[in-house]
Amino acid sequence: MQITQLNIYPVKSLKGISLAHSAVHEHGLAWDRRWMLVDAQQRFVTQRQLPALATVEVALTDEHLVLSHPNVEPLNVPLTQPEGNLRLVSVWNDHCKALPESEEVSRWLVAALGEQAQGLSMVRFATEFTRAVEEDFLDGGAAHTYFSDGYPFLIATTGSLDALNQALVAKGQAPVPMNRFRPNIVIKSDEAWAEDRWATLAEQSGAFQLALRKPCKRCKVTTIDQHTAAVPAPAEPLKTLIELNTQPTQKGAHFGQNATLLEGADSVIRVGDRLVVTIRDA
């Protein structure tokens, strides 16, 4: 098996960046979910509330996070840590310490997206703070993450996307691209849903090892076109994923596996890396 895509999402719920390689850290791929948008109550805001966030492009240079949108000139946000007091912000039920970026970002978002972006600000995860991953699926271990929904890595496979798209087309629906699921690591696999039986994934020479912890329950972000922010078929692909029932013991739609790092902090992961799998005990 081989890695075919690596993606990071520096600002939670904005467009992702495809990479040829990345540093691997316990909290995820380098720069993944380092920033987040929050409302006036300091609660996270994503495409669930504001689908238009999918139209904001993100790039990283040596010195800046660059935000781009067709309606406005690009905005450069310095990578150097901003000055200002720490804020307490929330992601789901977690409270995290964060540093606010300048109000210029808030003005830029309104200029790009209109009044629907009024009241938003962008914050950066305060790395001296640790946000723990839920312990229930860690087999006694520990892990942490930045502003992801809950786990530092999301793994998906081409075989599972192919199976989903075959089911969609059979119903007269359009197939969906992998970016609907916003994975970090995409693996070429001919067998659909094989990842649900994997316990670990290791680079063949042992540079890093990931533990697959739990299936990823999917939300309405998967219905949003990640280029246009349109919702072509409001119930899909969630309805078809539920019908496929890939997780018989769990309710809802699932696609991909949440993962944590077991070995290889600060190593490099590359598109093309070959992987060795261990299978879960039955």
Automatic annotation (TrEMBL):
SUPFAM superfamilies: MOSC N-terminal domain-like, PK beta-barrel domain-like. GO terms for molecular function: catalytic activity; molybdenum ion binding; pyridoxal phosphate binding. It comes from Vreelandella titanicae. The lineage of its organism: Bacteria, Pseudomonadati, Pseudomonadota, Gammaproteobacteria, Oceanospirillales. Residues 127-278 form the MOSC domain. It comes from the Bacteria. PANTHER family: MITOCHONDRIAL AMIDOXIME REDUCING COMPONENT 1 (PTHR14237:SF19), MOLYBDOPTERIN COFACTOR SULFURASE MOSC (PTHR14237). It holds the Pfam family MOSC_N. PROSITE patterns: MOSC (PS51340). This is MOSC domain-containing protein.
